[in-house]
Amino acid sequence: MLTGVVGKPNVGKSTFFSAATLLHVPIENRPFTTIKPNRGIAYLRSECVHKELGVTDNPNNSLCVDGTRLIPVELIDCAGLVPGSWQGRGLGNYFLDEVRKADALIHVVDAAGATDEEGRTCPPGARDPIKDVEFLDREMSMWLSQILQKDWRRIAQTVEMTHSSLQEPLIERLSGLAIKKEHIAQAIEEADIDPEKPTKWSEEDLLRFVHLLRHISKPMLIAANKIDLPYAEENIKRLRDAGLTVIPCSSEAELVLRRASEKRLINYIPGNSTFEIVSDSVTTEQKRALALIKDRILSKWGTTGVQDAVNAAYFNLLNMMTIYPVENTDRYTDHNGRVLPDVYLAPKGTTSRQFAYMIHSDLGNGFIYAMDARTKMRLGEEYPLKDRDIIRIISAKGHK
Ligand SMILES: Nc1nc2c(ncn2[C@@H]2O[C@H](COP(=O)(O)OP(=O)(O)OP(=O)(O)O)[C@@H](O)[C@H]2O)c(=O)[nH]1
Ligand SMILES: [Mg+2]
Fold first, then answer.
1. CA dihedral sign, ordered 230, 231, 237, 243
2. Which of 27, 77, 301 for mutating ligand 1's site (highest number of atoms within 8 Å of CB)?
3. Which of 102, 112, 175, 263 would disulfide-bridge 232, Cβ 3.0–4.6 Å?
4. Collapsing DSSP states into helix, strand and coil, what is residue 264?
5. CA atoms of 97 and 95, how far apart (whole Å)
6. From CA 334, how far away is CA 327, in angstroms rounded?
């Protein structure tokens, strides 16, 4: 699963990405700093189950810091999108070629309205960020529509003549866009159109379908960046009043905190609402910068927002939950004796057998039953797992 960091140029996408991944990437106050996309690993944070169980864990596929599990996920920082990108304007092709692979999108907007529609600097408050949201929405729908329009008539006629399903040729046409059959089915249903008579769809029907498909297959949240600047607060209120899911952010502040933490100047877990200076080598200037972050960001907004946005992309947009597989339900260990080694991300509604398949196909094929390590209850194959479940799979084919 992949999340794309998208938006117009110069809003702070690379700063957000760098803060989330700690990778060093070019950041500048001008449009089109990023040309080739950057890919990296960010971490979701989730309260670890080890405290509740009173054991010391020994993580393998993730990290555990002071009771917080950090689960790796992939992020891409895309080139900036400008009006007309879907027709290849600006760096449109670079952008769309990356974004097609994403399962969810974090749309970084300049909440202070300090960059114009092409990402050039302007006085804070001069640009309305709602326009940026509308523009990105339109660009993405136009892009998807263009891909679909290419073969639409042929696809529609074939489906009607051969009485075949519309989903197959659509999946084929949209391959590589991380669009699944369920997404197409849901978009057809919500658009209230007849999948057996696609030649009868009007142009509006098709556009409505494309728009829904885009929203369903690439759900998006808004990271309202630059909350340290004037006008951000009132713009965020307006974005929320417009019914949008908005997470206020200061990518720059998060980057400062993450780098200071990396150098062991401060104790800070990403997403926390506080930090603590732990080194004597912090300069007066650094102290001043840190105090400003405490005052203007953390005290006022709670967090810098970057971690909240990454978490929300997976836990809210993609509806993921965390599941801990173990082999020994008394000691919560794997076959090497590691305590709570792994945590998996699984979509809500995943059953115990589907989860077995996620670990290994042999475990899924030979599935006999699952066991809840907390209660030692046996769970059947249809049992829907819950967030933070600790599960043992008992399978005829053994483990791995
Ligand atoms: N005040 C403030 N400035 C920020 C924040 N985040 C990023 N910036 C600044 O915004 C400018 C652009 O940052 P980038 O991260 O390069 O922006 P981008 O969206 O990746 O830009 P392109 O790659 O050109 O599309 C830089 O000067 C950053 O320092 C923030 O939270 N607050
Ligand atoms: Mg960039």
1. negative
2. 27
3. 112
4. coil
5. 5
6. 5
Per-residue pLDDT band for 88 (boundaries 50, 70, 90) equals confident
* Strand 38-47 versus strand 68-77 pairing type: antiparallel
The mean pLDDT of 37-63, rounded to a whole number, is: 96
Q: How far is the CA of 79 from the centre of ligand 1 (A)?
A: 12
Q: Is the CB of 304 under 6 A from ligand 1?
A: no
**Ligand 1 in reach of 9 Cβ (< 6 A):** yes
User: Can you give the pTM of this predicted structure?
Assistant: 0.95
As a whole number, the mean pLDDT across the chain is 94
Mutate to test the pocket of ligand 1, among 10, 109, 296 (most ligand atoms within 8 A of CB): 10
> What amino acid occupies position 338?
R
Span from the CA of 251 to the centroid of ligand 1 (angstroms): 8
Chain centroid to CA 224: 15
Distance between CA 122 and CA 107 in Å, rounded? 20
pLDDT in tens, 108-118: 999 999 999 99
Tokens of 223: 């990271």
229 Cβ inside 6 Å of ligand 1:
yes
Burial of 288 (0-12, 13-18, 19+ CB in 10 A): exposed
* Ligand 1 midpoint to CA 62 (Å): 29
pLDDT for the residue 91: 64
Does the Cβ of 21 fall within 6 Å of ligand 1?
Answer: no
User: What does the alpha-carbon distance between residue 234 and residue 140 come to, in Å, rounded to a whole number?
Assistant: 27
pLDDT tens across 5-46, in order? 999 999 999 999 999 999 999 999 999 888 889 999 999 999
- What is the sign of the dihedral through the CA atoms of 34, 253, 61 and 178? negative
